Amino acid sequence: MDNPTDLEFKESAFFEMTPDLVCIAGKDGFFRKVNPAVLDKLGYTSEELMSRPISSFIHPEDKPLTRQKRKELLNGKALVNFQNRYITKTGAILWLEWTSIYFSDREIVFAIAKNITERKEIEIEIENKYRKFKGLTAHFKSSMEEDRKYLANELHEELSQLAAVLQRDLEWLGSNGQAWEPSSKSRMEHALGISKLLMKTIRRISFSISPNMIGHLGLNATLERHCREFSLLNGIPCNFESSCDEQGLTEEVRIDLFRICQEALMNILYHAQAGQVKITIEDTDGQIRLTIVDDGKGFDANRQNTQPGFIRMRERAASINGQLTIRSGIGKGTTISVTIVRSS
Hints:
This protein is α+β, with helices and mostly antiparallel strands. It contains eleven helices and ten strands. It has helices at 6-11, 13-17, 36-42, 46-50, 63-74, 117-176, 182-209, 213-217, 219-234, 251-272, 308-319; strands at 21-26, 31-34, 79-87, 93-103, 108-115, 238-242, 277-284, 287-294, 323-328, 334-341. Helix 6 runs antiparallel to helix 7 (182-209), helix 9 packs parallel to helix 10 and helix 10 (251-272) packs antiparallel against helix 11. The longest helix is centred in the middle third of the chain and has 60 residues, at 117-176.
């Protein structure tokens, strides 16, 4: 089929009657012909449109990308579904989605655009609401972490000190008591043992509530310690490996990855009946992946969405633009992964 001529375009009923914006432009960047929809939407007369470069009608923020796409178009690459903004005669913004073809033998561009202003305004409104929601979520999480830090500090500094005083008093009584009755001595030794256990428990709970190590030593060191304590306290071997360079990770991401791991280990402890656990953090191809694997009894993966622990992990992952996946099966253990794209 021969390439259409200007005359054929002019005589085309489609060109004149379609509600889409249709135009012919020269290689020089000026309009050659536009259909009535272009005049109606932009509000200019045909003479006004023809007398100025097309770029003068484009929104300033969209000019660089439009210029690049036009260069690609003139080099033979068809333009498909390209979106940019035009400024109407009244100053309103018009969002257009273009599909264009360049006919090199005639040095003209044939272009069709759909008016997507209403759709883009809805998208922008949704995006603004999402950003607001995300900001509120970040504020809520930050506030919650501050409360956790305060509680952890109170536990560690206040209760731990009181327990230490109690332990010292019991030790003094045990060393300086005169001829304790065997039953009393046994009670004293028992109370001393409980006081030591109380101190360890307070420190463990304090760390669990707010791992201040993240801010001082980083995510890797904190998770390594958490795995070590999990193994010692619960008798379940927990190995940790990391190839992740933490530089560039925000505190929010570090805390959320720790919380996801913490939640996963709690689920393993209370439900999995696992013999061992392995936690890895990989940093490859611009992505960071945290993976928790256990060899426990597993479960029906189709029911995971209803479990509170999985819901909390999924919400944590979503709040840092991460994707959480859970693979499991009856008798096949469980693998939990959260993947985030490293910010450039």
